[in-house]
Each structure stands twice: as structure tokens, then as C-alpha cells.
Design a protein that fits this description.
By secondary structure, this protein is an alpha/beta fold. It is 40% helix and 15% strand. It contains 11 helices and 10 strands. The protein has helices spanning 28-41, 55-64, 85-99, 119-131, 145-155, 173-180, 196-199, 202-211, 215-226, 237-244, 253-260; strands at residues 7-9, 15-17, 21-22, 45-47, 73-78, 104-109, 135-141, 161-165, 185-189, 229-230. The strands form 2 sheets. Strands 3-4-5-6-7-8-9-10 form an 8-stranded parallel sheet. It has a two-stranded antiparallel ribbon with strand order 1-2. Strand 3, helix 1 and strand 4 form a beta-alpha-beta unit. The longest helix has 15 residues, at 85-99. The mean pLDDT is 95.
Amino acid sequence: MNQHVPEMTLNDGLKVPAIGLGTYSLKGADGVKAIAGAIDLGYRLIDTAFNYENEGAVGEAVKRSSVPREELLICSKLPGRRHAYREALVTIEESLYRAGLDYYDLYLIHWPNPKQDLYIEAWQAMIEARKRGYIRSIGVSNFLPEYNARLVRETGVAPSLNQIELHPYFDQADQRQKDAEYGIVPESWSPLGRGHRMLQDDRIARIAAAHGKTTSQVILRWHTQLGSIPIPKAGSLQHQKENLELFDFELSEAEMNVIRGFGDGDGSGRLWGQDPAEYEEF
């Protein structure tokens, strides 16, 4: 593990880097090259999903990189159409076969799909998969606090991590506080929001200039200081390198509040309208 990337300890003892690489849309030979390059550069946490259709590219990148498998943390996710207990177990096995891996370090339920009401079955399958050695640590994605509370109530097992939409327009303060009661670490998908609008904002540009950093570095640092693990997608070596260089400066509380203030009063919240109580992904 590169020394300049700190680690966080999950509630089951697994240590994970404070930043990871998102791989959505990184596919095929170009995807393998980009992901392997990121690993060689210093990324150790790699995020994929069954529904991204690139678990094979991630697995191939792991084989081609210069880093031993045991130093990497590979995360994938269970699709909504496979929440039924037996289907979930088979899907996890297929997920491993696709990637050519013996185990995943992290595996998440991608969306709760509450109208189907099968996420408890899916969670029970994940618990079993962990017992079988398929997965080292089990978590969730896009789970509201009441869903996590139900998982704990009905199975006695809390997720180690909850991957959620989190960015300055939607800082998820209530979600983070309630998840923390179970020791659930937040992980930020879409950490830069829709990107361009925020990255061109003068308020963030002034903070970036004060630290000699880029606007994207400032926003990603905001995530890490919130205690969340950002997983920005980056295909180019330049952006991958830039996104890793977050831990040699610190934002003041006033600067944190400027960035947090993007979500105040405008009602924007979720940028894609994907409310986990309603939105379902199969």
C-alpha cells in the first residue's frame, strides 16, 4: 500500500484505503489498460459491479498489474434481479468466475429495491457467501437508514460499508450520522456531482488556489475529511494521479462549510433523482 494513502478500518476489521477507483464504463482492452495503470500508480481499492459488465476487465487488470492480489481490495455488487437467496449465491459465484478471482474483498447489494422486498434474502446470502470464503467483507449500496436498521434487526449483522450518492450538493449528513451508529463507513459514488458546474465554481477555485490544488482535489479532500471514501472514475493517468494526491493538505472548518453549503436551500439534493425508496435497478 502506498504510504501517502491512509486507511480506514471497517466494523469487521478490514482495512481499506481512504480513496478508491470507480470503474463504471471502463471496459474491454482500454478499460484493462486504464485499471491496471491505476493499480500500478497506487490505487488499491477498485470498485466494480455485476451490472457494469466489466468484472472481467477488472480481473484482467489485477493479473496484469505489478501489485500482488493480496495487496488489492476488489469490490463488486449484486444486481437487483438476483436478490432471491439461491440466485444471489449463484450470482456471487458467477461474479467471481467473470473476474477470475478466488474471492472479493468487498461485495455490496447494489440497490435495496424495497418494492420487491427481497433485500433481507440477499443479505442472508451475502452472510453465507462470507462464511464460504467468497467475500471478506459485506456491505450495501444506496441503503437508507431504515433498511440498514432492518438488516441488523433481522440478521444481527451490520453492513461494513454503504456506498451512497454523496457530493457537495447532497452531503448526506443524516444518513452518515445514522449509519455511524452501526459503525457503517460511507463511500461516495459520484463524488464530484455532475462535475463541470462544481469544478468551475469560483468559491471552490479560491479554496483550491489557497492550497495549490485543483478544484477536484479540494472536493475529494472534503469527502475524506467527512470520513467518506470517494471512488471517482478516472480513465486517464493524469486524472488518476491527481485524484490520489489528497493527503498532503487539509481543509479548514470554514472551507469545509463553504463546500457543504452547496446543498443548502436550493433543493437540488440527488442529482439523478434516484431515491432508494422509489428507484429500483435490476
